[in-house]
Specification:
309 residues, Alpha-Beta Plaits, Double Stranded RNA Binding Domain, 3 domains
């Protein structure tokens, strides 16, 4: 019913736009209304561009919430600090779009930053926008952790998963899970240290292991771990379907890790460039503050263009 209501709303929007264009064409023949017609034409053009862009968010899971996972690459403290910077960037992006973002789990680095993090992002088409961020992100800067402040390159991997809904497409049997509890290792007071509130869930058929220790209760950690597990199982199913389509087309499906999608250069100049679309900006600090819409829209438009070929 939600899908039907969404489709009806989308079709109604196109029908309203069509009527407005017909009305504007009728007025175009009246010279005394030239200025009004010109203003209306500009508005309709902008609305058409907006609706055409919405076509790029027509994937089967695009309208859903998303789970964003960030993993520091090789390089120790440098990469862990870069992963922390990426986490802050996406949290600020979500705030700009008035999305809700909740950190589900984090693994702190030894000296600074994070080894990994998982964030739930709730909002209209959250997954549709964030799927453009999947891949390896590269940072070039003067190292703040080196006494000589030498230039350093760091890498981090971003994964994006569609959040599972109640009508989830994957089934988990009663014997498919092994659930273990243990004491949390992070800060959180006596309750965290004395009670086995952390949860580790192993999906036996696939070998997927999900751990969560951020919440204070075992029940909350179990629910969070199950949500992440369901999202990962959906992502695996999506990849299987994509690989089958690619096989039928004769295309090669490459692995995500090692495929650098975007570079963030802070020294010797400032530039952020997406290597898939060539979209770039010199406002690197603005991007790190969450100004990502230009990169996301460029990717989605290019992906829509490839799909139509």
């Amino acid at each position: 019913m939600r899908q039907l209501a969404h489709l009806k709303e989308e079709v109604a929007g196109w029908m309203v736009l069509e009527k407005e264009i017909r009305d504007a064409l009728e007025l175009a023949g009246m010279p005394e209304l030239a200025s009004e017609v010109e203003a209306e034409a500009a508005r309709l053009e902008a609305e058409l561009g907006k609706r055409e862009f919405q076509l790029s968010l027509g994937g089967p899971y695009d309208a859903r919430n998303a789970i964003l996972a960030i993993h520091a690459g090789a390089g120790g403290t440098e990469s862990q600090d870069w992963a922390q910077m990426l986490l802050s960037m996406y949290l600020r992006w979500a705030e700009r779009r008035h999305f809700q973002a909740q950190i589900l789990d984090t693994s702190p680095g030894e000296e600074a930053g994070i080894k990994s993090a998982a964030v739930e992002v709730k909002g209209d088409y959250a997954y549709g926008y964030l799927r453009s961020e999947r891949g390896v992100h590269r940072l070039v800067r003067l190292s703040p952790f080196n006494a000589d402040h030498l230039r350093h390159t760091s890498f981090a991997l971003v994964e994006v998963l569609p959040e599972a809904e109640s009508d989830v497409e994957v089934n988990i049997g009663p014997d498919d899970l092994r659930i273990d509890t243990f004491r949390s290792s992070g800060a959180g007071g006596q309750n965290v240290q004395k009670v086995s509130s952390a949860v580790r869930i192993t999906h036996l058929p696939t070998g997927l292991v999900i751990s969560c220790q951020n919440e204070r209760s075992q029940h909350q950690n179990k629910e969070t771990a199950l949500r992440i597990l369901m999202a990962r199982l959906i992502e695996m199913e999506v990849k299987k379907r994509e690989e089958e389509v690619a096989r039928l087309k004769g295309e090669h499906v490459s692995a995500g890790w090692g495929n650098q999608i975007r570079s963030y250069v802070l020294h010797p100049y400032r530039m952020v460039k997406d290597h898939r679309t060539d979209h770039e900006t010199s406002n690197a600090l603005g991007v790190l503050e969450g100004d990502l819409d230009g990169f996301m829209e460029a990717y989605l438009r290019s992906a829509l263009g490839r799909a139509s070929v």
